[in-house]
Amino acid sequence: MNKIAFYGLLFLGILVASCVPTKDLIYLQDKDSSTNKPVISEVNKKPYRIQANDVLIVNIKTIDPTLSEMFTPTNSNTQRVQSEQALYFEGFSVNDHGNIRIPVLGEVNVLGYTLDEVRLNIEQKLLDEYFKKEANLFVSVRLAGLRYTINGEVASPGSKVLYVERVSILDAVANAGDITVTGDRKNVVIVRQYPHGIEMHTVDLTSRDVLSSPYFYLQPNDYILVNPLKEKSWGTGTTGLQSLATIISVLSLVTTLIILIQR
């Protein structure tokens, strides 16, 4: 009888321990309060500073279209592809020295500057060397999509490009097909490049506090790593039913071996 109780408790303990708790799967939980107050989080996002290998889209417009075309790459005039991906190939790539090459203007240093600062710099250079104020000069500068890489416990790992101005960590996870049941949502790692080197940051996607984190919004070339929960290493299954089936199989095998040994 004692053996039956022992194995019963052991079976129950393994079954419970091998299941992933619901609280580890739910995003944006209010862990500090039991009230259902609406969440208001201040947007905590510093202007992005351009790095090497970024691709910029630079548009220069004036009242004279012929003059505007002087500063546009030839291939983008003759072969326009009607897709968002075309922006990437029509853009200006930032080389290892932090420069982009614009027709007529030549080399323009952009490394470490914000998009707004680059726009003002190009505008001033054009007004100083090529145009007067009467030309109604208009310059826009933006990134040709935001590229990031996500790996680990997600449905669709790999490098992704989203053609929007701003991407949150939740957007990136959703675009990768969500984190699997055995993925650790409490310790999602973001590897980020800075001018001084590479840093690693951790965010907890199960807490609402992530909304006010300085790492909630991604930067180009971020690397996201979702590590597995310890339940995965036990190999008992991702759900209670799978764990139960695995444990029953193991116990059946053990029972069979004991019977064979006693014969």
Structure commentary:
With 263 residues, the chain is an alpha+beta fold. The chain is built from 8 helices and 10 strands. Strands 7-6-10-8-9 form a 5-stranded mixed β-sheet. Helix 1 (2-18) packs antiparallel against helix 8. The protein is elongated.
Secondary-structure blueprint:
Layout: H1 2-18, E1 55-61, H2 65-69, H3 74-78, H4 86-90, E2 92-93, E3 99-102, E4 106-109, H5 115-129, E5 138-143, E6 146-152, E7 158-162, H6 169-175, E8 183-194, E9 197-203, E10 222-228, H7 230-234, H8 240-262
Parallel strand pairs: 6-10
Antiparallel strand pairs: 1-2, 1-5, 3-4, 6-7, 8-9, 8-10
What's the short story on this structure?
The protein is an alpha+beta fold. About 30% of the residues lie in helices and about 25% in strands.
